[in-house]
Amino acid sequence: MAAACASLTIAAMNTSTSATRALPRIAVLATGGTIAGAAPDATNTSGYQAGVVGVGQLLAAVPSLAAVANVQAEQVASVDSKDMALALWSTLAQRINTLLASDEVDGVVVTHGTDTLEETAYLLHLSVKSDKPVVLTAAMRPSSALSADGPLNLLNAVIVAGNAKARGQGVLVAFNNRIHSARDVVKTSTYAVDAFQSPEIGALGWVQDGRVEFQRSVVRPHTGATPFVIDSNSAAWPLVEVVTSYAGVSRVAVDALVSASVKGIVVAGTGNGSIHSTVQTALVEAAAKGVAIVRSSRVGSGHVMRNGAAADDALGFVTAGALNPYKARVLLMLALAAGLTTPVALQQIFDTF
C-alpha cells in the first residue's frame, strides 16, 4: 500500500554556499524492497523483511551522498516489490513528473525492490515527460547484511542522476557499478549482487568512484517522446495478463481470461515466440473477440520476429521484438489505455518503443 509521502532534506555538508549550490539537486523516492530490508542477523540474506527501513536510515548509511548532491527524500511506499500494484505505479509516475517539472530538481532516484524493478523502470521509461535523469536502484542483500550492496548502489544512482551525460537517456538502472537502459535490463539471478544484466546488447555504461562513463546511447524513443500519459484518471488500467506455452499445455488459462473480459494477453512462447497448437487455437478465438494478442518469448534473450502474412497477419497477432513477456505487458497496457487496439496500430507501437 502506498504511504503518504514523508519528506526530508539532506544538504551537502559544505561551508561554501556557492559550492553547495553547484551540486545537483536530486530527489530520492523510496518504495521499499530489499534495499530497505532487515533480518535478525547479519548472515541472513534470504529470511529478511523487505521495506521496513525508512528512507532517512537508508541515506544515513551513505554519508558521502552529501559530497555529491543536495538530496531531498520522500517515502512514497514501503512494499516488497513482488507486491507492486498498478495504483502505486500511477502514484510514482505522477510524482516523478511533478518533481521533474520543477526547476529545483535536477534528477530523480527511485529505490525499489528487485523482483519487479525492470517492469517499473520500463513503465517510467514510457511515461515520464522530462529529459532529466531518472535512475532506479535496488539491492540483492538487505541493509542488515554483511557486505550489503544497497549503500553503494544508492550512492552510484545519485551520482548518475546528477551527471549531465545521463540527461536524455530515458530511465536508467544503476546496479553493481553498471548503468542499464530500462528497456534492456532484466533480473537474471536469484541471489547474486550482479543480478541485473542487459542480455541482448549489454549495459549502457558504468559508474565507479564517482566517475560516470556511457559507452552507447539509447536509440528508441522514450520519456517525452511517447504518447503515453499516466495521470489521476489512470486508475482503471486495461486488464492484460501473461500466459505461457509449454509441453502439454491446455487452453484453460486463455479461456478463463477471455471469460474474465481481459483486454490483452501476452504469450511467453517457446523459442521465437512459438505457441503450442492447443493454446494458439484458443488465442485465435480470443483475437476474433477483440482481445489483443502479443507473442513474446520465455527465452532469456533474443527477439521475436514477425512472421508476416503467413502467420501473424492472418492470425491477428502482434510480436514483442526484444521485450520479455512482462515488459511487453507494460507496453500493451499503456497502448490499450491510449486507445490503440488494432493489430496494425499495436505492432507499430511495439516496433517503435
UniProtKB/TrEMBL annotation:
Q: Which residues bind substrate?
A: 81, 114-115
Query: Known SMART domains for this protein?
Result: Asparaginase (SM00870)
GO BP term, pick one: asparagine metabolic process
Give the residue range of the signal peptide.
Answer: 1-21
Active-site residues (renumbered): 34, 114
Q: Which residues form the Asparaginase/glutaminase C-terminal domain?
A: 240-350
For this protein, the record's CDD domains field holds: L-asparaginase_II
Q: What is this protein called?
A: L-asparaginase
Task: Identify the species of origin.
Answer: Paraburkholderia steynii
